[in-house]
Amino acid sequence: DIRDQTKKLKLELTRFMMNYSFALDEIGTKVKILKEEFHLIHDYNPIEHVNSRLKTPESIFKKIQRKNLSFDLDVIKNNIQDIAGIRITCSFVSDIYRIQEMISKQSDIQVIDIKDYIKTPKSSGYQSLHLILSVPVFLSDREESVFVEMQIRTIAMDFWASLEHKIYYKYKKEIPKHLTDELLEAAKTAALLDMKMESLNDEINILKAADQEPISTSISA
Ligand code: 0O2
């Protein structure tokens, strides 16, 4: 009857969403291990902060409609790859690619897709590195591969994206062109700031390395 069917559907949906939550837990642990071990070995922490989120049912529903998909869990699973999302904010652009490499090398993770919005920013000015990962989730009776979208960005990219998102969110109508132009300009300024901070860091590292070199005691004649 209808009550049994509703109960079954509810259970199916809960299990469906739980897998994404487990996948986020797993990837979150992986990132935490990388962060702590990297800090221990290199005495440097490339990761500033990490956030993760599950897409809300409303947002999943909107995307199903936008992509003209049928309301079928298998179709949703295969076509909506950002139900689980983790965002890693790091210090320098080079850290982004370092983290990408560390994650990609892990044998149980498959990199399904890479969108490099740093090399090719979006027309809005948005920059970040997006990876679609397939993560195995070990359940009581089976193993499931689950997609997780990993966004890796610098503090400057995150600053821009967070504020731009807020500006759009607050203003529901179409944004006047001069504002989108200025937002694009601001994104370019953020990218310049990233370049400047990275080159300052490189210079300091050279000075630090020189400081650590053993002082030669032999005096040549
Ligand atoms: P939320 O709230 O972060 O989840 P797809 O439709 O996913 O197959 P799409 O939309 O081209 O393909 O995916 P894309 O652009 O690779 O990634 C979308 C996500 O990137 C967005 O998620 C944002 O988090 C971020 N993003 C992309 N473009 C912009 C931008 O111009 N400004 C800001 N602030 N963020 C951006 P959601 O689902 O839109 O939102």
TrEMBL record:
Keywords: Kinase, Transferase
Protein's pathway: Purine metabolism; ppGpp biosynthesis; ppGpp from GTP: step 1/2
Any one GO BP annotation for this protein: guanosine tetraphosphate biosynthetic process
Database matches in SMART domains: RelA_SpoT (SM00954)
UniProt GO MF annotations: kinase activity
Domain RelA/SpoT: 52-175
PANTHER family: GTP PYROPHOSPHOKINASE YJBM, GTP PYROPHOSPHOKINASE YWAC
The protein's name: GTP pyrophosphokinase
Species whose genome carries this gene: Kurthia sibirica
